Amino acid sequence: MPRRSARLVAPAVAALLPAAAAAQAPGTPRDSATRRIEPVVVTGTRAAATVGGAGAVVVRPDSLPIPTQPAPLLEQVLRQTPFVLVRQNSRGEVELSVRGSDSRQASLLLDGLPLTLGWDHRTDASLIPATGVRRVTLVRGLSSLLTGPNALGGVIAVELNAADADGARRPDLTLGTGIDQFSARVLTAAGGAPVALGSGTLTFRGGATYRQRDGFALSRDGGAGEGTTGGVGDPGDVRDAALRTNTDLRQTDGFAAVRWDGASGAYLGGTVTAYDARRGVAPELHVRAPRFWRYPESSRRLGVLSAGTGDLATPFGRGRVDASVGAYQGDLEIESFTNRTYSTVASRELGDERTASGRVTAAHSLPGDGQLRVGGTLADVRYDETLDAQLPASVASRYRQRLSSLGAELEFPLLSRVLVSGGVVRDAAETPETGGKASLGELSRWGWRVGTTAAVVDQLRLHASASRRARFPALRELYSGALNRFDPNPTLRPESLLGFEAGATVVGDAAARAGLTLQTVAFHHRLDDAVVRVTLPNRLFRRVNRDQIRSTGVELLAGWTPASLRGVSFTGDLLAQKVRLYDETLPAGQPNERRPEHQPQLRGSFDVGVPLGLGVRGSALARYTGRQFCQHPDLGRQVALGAQTVGDAALSRAWSLAPAGRGARLLRALRATLAMDNVTDATVYDQCGLPQPGRTVRFGLELR
After folding, report:
1. How far is 534 from 541, CA to CA, in rounded Å?
2. In this predicted model, what pLDDT tens digit does every residue of 515-536 receive, in sequence order?
3. How far is it, in rounded angstroms, from Cα 650 to Cα 612?
4. Of residues 590 and 432, more confidently modeled
């Protein structure tokens, strides 16, 4: 089945980010980029673009190189996204990292509202459902200061209830199911329908998914390989020796959305999403006393309201205002067991999180084809933590954090092919409730950025940017002991990132006709007061501020769909970086430079898609991760994790169910996919002692 094309216009990509506008609609005031620089049009499943002088990649979950099971989790989508490092940690959470950053420095947005402002300032991608998600945009640098506080190392924008980028207004319905050789299964249904209402359109969308697995496949050696350092491998689950210990999952999720789009560009929308999950946490293989944890409850409910005025005439020109408010509640229960049989509970932790946030952005035209954008974000995070919850005397500790951000940006064209922008922002945080521990009080930091995009010739666009911004420590970093795994450190200082990038993107009709996508970006980041973890003599971890982490690297993204080879496509990406931590607090004579944890210097992937005849399409993907390091709690030092490669392959075929000339109808096509993940059954680690699943064969069906 030929891949779907992604026609991308740079201002439309920017519209996915709340810095430009929260959930754009037709009628958005055209900014200088629209007037002065021709649209970027590229073709591919992982398309390159530029946003505000920063490199970006746009991915459609239904058009990945290797088709996932229907309604994938966000983790599965991002593992096939260039330049984002996806890693499962020892708590069973999936962390995201961009350009040598920590996972708390990347901002994850759902329809313009940040999900990463909470107890931990990050979101577990292994639980975020992609049911109904239309598009995911990864901006690697800081494209704008208006994305809210604590956005340093990139922005991942997930589009669920935004206006259709192509203006389509048609009913749709998707039904899907999938299974693997261990009887893991998924069932999903999602759809929507537009209804004419006055001069506008009212669109309803909704969906639900059920997932179940008994565990992940063990790789061929059970996980006892390089990087385990003292581990003996995984003997398998007590119920099934072919499965990784304690990796089962039961999850149900759903969403409902309604959106009204007026002819003038005004809109009003509401979205409700929720999930409920029960799962195990794989124990580490390289330590004497790993976590034996289970999550008997992990749930979240999120509601978002958004509205925009569309393009309006004012006494001073043209402008618009967009606003969104949201609230979510999450419940978490962790059970810690005495051994790998998971029969005796040693301790229990309960977490109750409530976060309310809101943002307002406004844009207005200026003389000389310029534009002024302002934006503000407020977030209030409350968390009740109960440790040793099985004891009658256990009492919840209450924590609270307020975060705010207020910024302004200017954008002006120079001549006819150059666009420059710049702005300032003030971020602030305070911790009025700290569970009886020391408070950081009120903190604030100023940030700035400048950027430029230049269409040197019709086929080549150059971009560059520089920025500085701070990140405030999360409540969990400051105060949580994680069931006696961490020693809290309420004296952590904010981090501050100084970033530079410059790049080039091949664009234009000539590149589109040649089926070519090409982008190269060079970057340098300097993170001051970096928060890292160290091992104490009692084997507990502690987060501390180190002097500096420096990241320097190059990103390459290329795609080619030659017209002479009908249906054949090639895509590749490569990240080469040098990441170093410099600690000036060490005694004289000791080396002050070392490798940070979980930061490989080389990562890349290559995929190829080929039509095989009889309507069958074959695809293969290889992913390479270079040598990296991790902190070993038993040894009190870093150990190396060797370079590793994993390959996936798939066959897919589509059948049309709508005879020609019968008009529009739902369920017009059936697609079947047979895939094999980790073809060679290699032992591939996310981090020391935590291997990815072994060889897995899966089959999926989708009706659209």
Report:
1. 6
2. 788 999 999 999 999 888 887 8
3. 12
4. 432
Name the CA radius of gyration of the chain, rounded.
25
Collapsed DSSP state (helix, strand, coil) of residue 510: helix
Query: Phi/psi class of residue 370: alpha, beta or left (left: φ > 0; alpha: ψ in -120 to 50)?
Result: beta
What CA–CA distance (Å, rounded) separates 52 from 465? 8
The tokens for 193 are 């329908």
pTM above 0.90? no
The pLDDT tens digits of the residues spanning 142-195 come to: 888 888 888 887 888 888 887 764 445 578 899 999 999 999 999 999 999 999
Q: What is the pLDDT of residue 632?
A: 83
Q: Note whether 342 and 290 are within 8 A (CB).
A: no
DSSP secondary structure code for residue 657 in this structure: -
Per-residue pLDDT, 668:
85
Q: What pLDDT score was predicted for residue 393? A: 61
Q: Which of 296, 333, 247, 211 is nearest to 690 (CA)?
A: 247
* Cα–Cα dist 363/407, whole Å: 12
As a whole number of Å, the end-to-end CA separation of the chain is 14
Query: What's the per-residue H, E or C state across 103-147?
Result: HHHCEEEECCEECCCCCCCCCCCCCCECCCCCEEEEECCCCCCCC
Calculate ∠ Cα 81-82-83, nearest 5°: 120
Nearest CA to 127 out of 263, 330, 354 is that of: 330
Three-class SS of residue 349?
A: strand
Residue in this structure with the two tokens 């150990």, named with its chain if needed: 639
Q: What's residue 26's pLDDT?
A: 34
28: confidence class by pLDDT, cuts 50, 70, 90: very low
Whole-number Å distance between alpha carbons of 634 and 537: 10
CB 133 within 8 A of CB 158: yes
pLDDT at 401: 95
Residue 701 CA neighbour count, 13 Å, CB half? 7
Structure confidence at residue 254 as a pLDDT band (50, 70, 90)? very high
CB 41 within 8 A of CB 509: yes
Domain 10-226+247-314+321-341+355-703 superfamily per CATH:
TonB-dependent receptor, beta-barrel domain (2.40.170.20)
8 Å CB contact between 551 and 583: no
CB 693 within 8 A of CB 282: no
Q: Is the dihedral of CA 285, 289, 290, 293 positive or negative?
A: positive
CA-closest candidate to residue 479, choices 391, 400, 596: 400
Task: Please give, one letter per residue, the 3-state secondary structure of 281-294.
Answer: CCCCCCCCCCCCEE
Domain residue ranges of the chain, discontinuous segments joined by +? 10-226+247-314+321-341+355-703
